[in-house]
Structure formats: C-alpha cells, structure tokens
Amino acid sequence: MTRLFAKYPLITKLILVLSAWSLAAVSLHLSLNGEHKAFYYALGAVDLLLALAVLIYLVFKKDLLDKIIKGINLKLGLFALICACFAAQQLAESSLWGFSATMRLPVALLLVPACFAWIYLFWQHAGTFLLKIYKSFSKFERLFFFIASALICVGIFVLFSMTNIFFSTVTPQGTEVSYDVIFTSDTSMVFFQKAFVNINSPQNYCDQPLFAVFSAPFAIPAELLSKLFYIIPNSNAILLQMMQAVLLVFTLILHSKMLGSSRFLFLAIASYPFLLWVFPVEQLIFSLFWLTLLIYAYTQKHEHCDLFYTSAVGSIVTTGVLLPLLHKKHLVKDILKAAFTFFSITVLFGQLGNVLDIYTYKAMMRFSGGGLSLYEKLGQFLSFVASCFVKPPTKFGSNIEGFPAILLENASLEYIIGSGLILLLCALSFVVNKKSPYTKICIGWALFSLILLGFLGWGAAENGMVLYSLYFGWCFIALIANLSKKIPKLPGMILLCLITGAMAFVNLRALAELVLFGVKNYHY
C-alpha cells in the first residue's frame, strides 16, 4: 500500500476522494424518502457539494491519506480493512436493498477505501485515548472493571438464552413487537434495523444523526465475531450487548475517577438504570459513553476535544448543551471549532438532511408534554429522579398494540417525597463541593434534566421519562456520592453499604420479575 501511494500519490488520493464522496451519496438514501422530497433533494445536493469541498481540503490540503499511509500500523490496518469490508457491504445492502448482490458488489468495493479510512482513523485516535485511560486505572478500578464486566456478560448470556425480551421481543406465536415492551423503548427495531452499524437505520433520527458513525467501530467487530459463534443461538445480540456492557462499566469507572471516589461505583452499579438498561439492546449506553468521554477529554485538556464533542452530540444532540459547562475560557472559539468539526463529519456521512430535518423535528414534538400541565410534567420528573436510584412504581399490562408490556404507574406520595429529598441532598452537595469542576458539571446537567424533562416535558406524553434515567441519572448519583464523602469514613462506609444493599435488593428483585415476565411472554 505504501509503495502504491509512493508511486501513484495523485491517483490514490483521487480514489479516496471518490470513495468517500460515494459514501456520502450512499448515506443520503433514506433522507431522500417520504414527503417533502424537494426539500430533501436540495439538502442532499448541498451535502454532496460540501462533502466534496471538505474531502478536497482534507486529502489535498491536510494530507489525510499521507498521514494514514506513512504511519500505518499493520495490525490495526488489517483489523480496519476487515471491518471496512463488512461496513461497505452493510452500506451497499441498506442503500441498494432492491438490487441483487451482483449489482451491490461494485458499490461495496468502491466504499471500502472510505470505510477503511474512517475505521482506521477512529481507532488510531479514540483507541489510543481509551488505552491511555485504562492504563490510568488503579488496581481496584481494574479489578472492578474485570469482575463487573465478567458477571454482567455471564448474565447477558444466561438471560438472552431464556427470553428475547431484551433484543427482539418476539412472541411465542412468532409476532414481532416493535416497541413499547419495556416501557417506551424501541428494542426490537433497534436490533433488527441494525442501528449500531447502519447509518441509514430509521432509528438514527435527527436527534441521533451520527450515532452509527461512532458506534459502528465497536459494533462491527462484535457482529463479525458472532459469525464465528454462529452455532450459539442469538450470538449476534449476545456479543453486541456484551460489548455495550463492558463500555458501560468503563463509563462508570470514568465518572468515579472524575469524582475521586469509588462510592460512586457502588451506588451506580446497584441503581435501577444500570441494572435495567445494561441488558436491552438499546442506544442509551453509547449516548452515555460518548457524553462521559467528552467530559473526561475536556477535564484532561485533550487536544481533540472537538472530535469527542462531535461523537457525543452526534449520538444524541441534547449533549450539545454541555459545552458551556465544560469550557474554561474561549467559549466562542470552542463553539466554532466544535461546530465546524460536527458539520464536516455530518456532510461526509451524508447526514446534513438528517440534522436539518425540520419536518421530523416537528413530528417528534408529539413526545413532549404539550398537552400536560406543568404540575403533571413536574410530577413525572420527580418520579424520574427517584427512578435514577430505585425501581419506580410499575405494572405488567399491555402496550398500545395490545401486547404484554411493562408500564410505569403514577408515583405514590412517599415516592415523590423521596425524590424531593434526593434533590435537596443534591443541592446540598453542590453547596459544600461547589469548587469542584466536576460537581459544577453534575449540577448543570441536573438542571438541564429539569428543564428538558420537568418544564418542557420530554417523554411526558408517554409517561416514559425512565427511558432517560441512564443518560441523566449519573449526575444525581455522583452528587449524592460526593456528599457522602463529608461523612466520617467508618460511619460513611456503613451507611453506603446499607443504602447500596437496599437498592440492590429492590432493583435485582425488579429485574428478576422482568425476566420472568419475558420468559412467559417473549421467547421463540
């Protein structure tokens, strides 16, 4: 490859530009469907023009290909090439699904160079950063990482063998239930539409326009590995969720490091959001993972914070509000740099039409609490805060299609009082720890959850705020854990053990009930 580039530098650069431009064109496919086609076609044309300009700048001005070829790591290069071939095949299949495999093959081959550059550069930068973080783990953190990951992976293997409620939600009669089985989650659609590896998946809405761009480098190896274990039923779902579980444990340790206390780990791993969302094949874990890496990158003054901002915001756009909480100075400069990086990657992957899809944004407003009073929305928010620690009031009933589902009930007065106490303790934690930058981020994120969920009522229309408990819950747990550090060591540890034990008892019991419900109603 190095010799080919040295002999034909212009040709190899043009091949990369053509391949990457084709990647942008292929990724436009779903954005051009449905109503308002003229609007989407116009955005598609603008996207392709901007993508070509960005590619010419990166390849010919910034010497992108030179940096890949001249410093290439052969092992990483081989790994990236294998993943790139699979990614190219998936993209060609999703964009040209009406054509034969013979017709899709030339498109897939054309996409390989761009997919290789994407995956190689991802692991070259993100992989190095993640490895550096892992090397900074203490002995306890490494032990916790391996033990927790191993136990959860065993749990995933066992539970996925008992019921499909966590990945495909298919009834014994063979009927696929697409959504709203575990609260308001879309587990079955996320899994069957391959949202983790398919940029064109309908699950990657305008609120998650670059989700697959940053999840695919993790999900593709898991899917490829599952093909080696094809004799194991549901190996694809099992390995995909095992990968997510490991990332979630890694994420919790990062928050513990930033807080400077392992007390966070014990509270977090016994919490309801962790024990609930570590099993379903959902997009929640990646959103939290990239959000956490963004915070960590800024606190460590990483040189590529704009890339982590793009991965976090691309995975879920609401994370964008973090930037004012993270910056120390030069806010305008940081925002402009982050915005430029975000929109450059957006156009390179053909997602400009998705990001600027005003019609889908408008349609998604049905999930807000526009028809509810402020009192009702705040009541749901209070219930949500407590659900970040312990199981909320639930019942087993039927979803809108009449299939068995787990549903939220209205919170009792005692539960709401408990939520109020949690909020008071969080406020107290901020007062006594207000000099800590991480504490300021936590309280800012908690206030944002109040605005988005409590006042705007996002998720209130379906009484489904528990869906966001993993995304927001860490800040409440961190504030409580930080406050507990003010208690003398021995009494504090005894109190922590009692609270953690009580949480684990309630939440593990709730998980067991959910599993039994799944075994009864959702299996092949």
Secondary structure: elements and pairs:
Elements (H helix, E strand, L loop, with lengths): L1 H6 L1 H19 L9 H25 L2 H7 L3 H22 L5 H35 L3 H24 L24 H6 L18 H18 L6 H25 L3 H7 L2 H6 L6 H16 L5 H11 L7 H4 L4 H18 L3 H4 L2 H7 L9 H14 L6 E5 L5 E5 L4 H20 L4 H19 L13 H16 L4 H33 L3
Antiparallel strand pairs: 1-2
Helix pairs in contact: 2-3, 2-6, 5-6, 7-10, 9-10, 10-11, 10-13, 11-22, 11-23, 13-14, 14-16, 19-20, 19-21, 20-22, 21-22
Write a structural description:
The protein is an all-alpha fold and 524 residues long. It contains 23 helices and 2 strands. Helix 11 packs parallel to helix 23. It is globular. The termini are far apart. The mean pLDDT is 88.
Features:
two-stranded antiparallel sheet, 2% strand, 23 helices, mainly alpha, 524 residues
Short description:
The chain is mainly alpha-helical. The protein has helices spanning 2-7, 9-27, 37-61, 64-70, 74-95, 101-135, 139-162, 187-192, 211-228, 235-259, 263-269, 272-277, 284-299, 305-315, 323-326, 331-348, 352-355, 358-364, 374-387, 413-432, 437-455, 469-484, 489-521, and strands at residues 394-398, 404-408.
The major β-sheet equals: 2 strands, antiparallel
Low-confidence stretches: none
Rg: 23 Å
SS-based class = mainly alpha
Mean pLDDT: 88
| Biggest β-sheet: strands ordered side by side in the sheet | 1-2
How far apart are the first and last residues' alpha carbons, in Å? 48 Å
Annotation, overall tally of beta strands: 2
Approximately what portion of the residues adopt beta-strand conformation? under 5%
Order of helices and strands: HHHHHHHHHHHHHHHHHHHEEHHHH
Number of alpha- plus pi-helical segments: 23
Share of helix, binned: 55-70%
